[in-house]
Specification:
The complex is a heterodimer of chains A (324) and B (319). Chain A contains twelve helices and 14 strands. By secondary structure, chain A is of the alpha/beta class. In chain A, strand 2 (24-28), helix 2 and strand 3 form a beta-alpha-beta unit. Helix content of chain B is 43%, strand content 10%. The chains are: A alpha/beta (324), B alpha/beta (319).
Amino acid sequence: MAQKTYMQALNDALREEMERDPNVLIIGEDVGQFGGCFGVTKGLFDQFGEKRVRDTPITESAIVGAATGAAAAGLRPVCELMFVDFIGVSMDQLFNQAAKMRYMFGGKTTIPMVLRAPQGAGIGAAAQHSQSLESWFMHIPGLKVAMPATPEDAYGLLLTAIRDDNPVVFLEHKVLYGVEGEVPDNAGAIPFGQAKICREGTDVTIVALSKMVYSALEAAETLAAKGINAEVIDPRTVSPLDMDTIIESVKKTHSLVVAHEAVKTGGAGAEIAAQVAEEIIDYLDTPIMRVGAPFTPVPFSPPLEEAFIPGAEDIVAAVEQIRS
Amino acid sequence: MTISKKKMIEMYTTMYRIRQFESKLQEFFAASKIPGFVHLYLGEEAVAAGACAALNKEDYITSTHRGHGHLIAKGGDLKLMMAEIFGKSTGYCKGKGGSMHIADVDLGILGANGIVGGGGPIATGAGMAIQYRGEDRVAVCFFGDGASNQGTTQEALNLASAWELPVVFVNENNGYGISCPISKSMAITDIADRAAGYDMPGVIVDGNDVTAVYEAITAAVARARKGEGPSLVECKTYRWRGHFEGDACTYREKDEVDEWIKKDPIPRCAQKMLDEGILTEKELDALHAKIDTELQEAITFAEESPLPEPADLFEDVYA
């Protein structure tokens, strides 16, 4: 059992897959000698050389499109967007090209590419460098979307992402890069579409995404002190989304709160809430509540950013509100 | 450059095959026999035929919304194409793609494309894969004058040039982006000028002269295969029909269309072959008859094929 940071776990997954499969290569802005904007690809340039860890110009459409074309031609590229916000520049290549090629072509091609991108607020990076955009991607058939919360999940899900024959959007929370956690020596690939029950409970189900998993666990401790036993579930991938685990949990707890850092409106939480309502509304003893960011861009100044980012206290308040 | 008789006949055959295929589609669309809408390649046949004659089977192409010509020239199966355009389950894409999304990865065809400028980065990626594996292949990106103004195209040109990728950018300048003439959409008249900004050769050819296209693309392909990087070849041509079938073409004069129809690349090539003794009239007639039969078989195949079942909707979203 080793203690590793989230970033080291990602770096290990990239290294191991590149050692295992010569078709895996990395392209992106400053991923080479520089080691990536946040340092995720550090050391890989030295080990694998420029051919396999290739700096691109600042050209997000060409980065995502070149990864798509190379994947169609049989490679397994991992491309990095420095910030997920830059997907706006390259969205067509992802959602109209990579995501749809297999379907449009009648199943006669695979696009085994990974688009890695950090998202999330908390470092004072303001409106164009701090968003959480998973709901954009999960809305598109043909894409898979992973968003690990822990080092072990970061490692295992990235292995799966690289080995997957579909385009995978791999969303890392930038505030988690330095977070340490245990990664077992025998850790391996973690299948997509398999939620993790992070804490078992009986009174309320809290489904949390990415960094909000930590807030949910913190909230669960606060709630426990008040006699409320919360179950915390991390879906780990929002496409595919493991609704079975969520529904089983809600059947047991009869109560649901969904928490994510993304803007609440039109977010992944709305989808999860709607599916639970459609499937098992009769099991619910309380209204469903979503916890998410307010409907504003991410602000810069620390007190404003702090007010924007949802946290444990918002989850506690939501649980208390629906139970009152 | 000497072009072999065999190559001349091959290019002519391709042009005639495209012409007949597209003419039939024009007829079928008017008779409401095909769903959706189609962008016909009539008048531009020499570009696809000349360019693809310079390629091998294992070379890649990316195509456009006006893609039937490229697909036929790269060796696409007429039966599977026709069935796809009819929306039949036997089509190239099992009826999932239609006219704008036909692909045949085994023939290196990475897809027609419904997004103007969509193919550039993909061709660049195919070029990156070729270079990575050290293969003797090239990737050709067909793109129109409209696509030349898209950021994706400029990014693809830049990346291919910066990395010296084996990509040939074949611009089909047919004068209009839908209704907008190039005089209103760019300050230059020659798209080839843009190559200078990427330090790559920018060549202009008569896109209605199949031999001129073939020669220019052959040179660009040779350069790419030698590892010397990408080229841009601008083929000046014209689309006889509107942007799509049903387009009233209020944005251009009939005289202009007529002038271009006089420059039809197909009789021009036929005459050249007759003059040079490559084919006799009789042999030309036989060639036409053979293609007409082949096309009729494709039509029959498409007409008699079943439509997809509604449940097929859910297949092939993911691998």
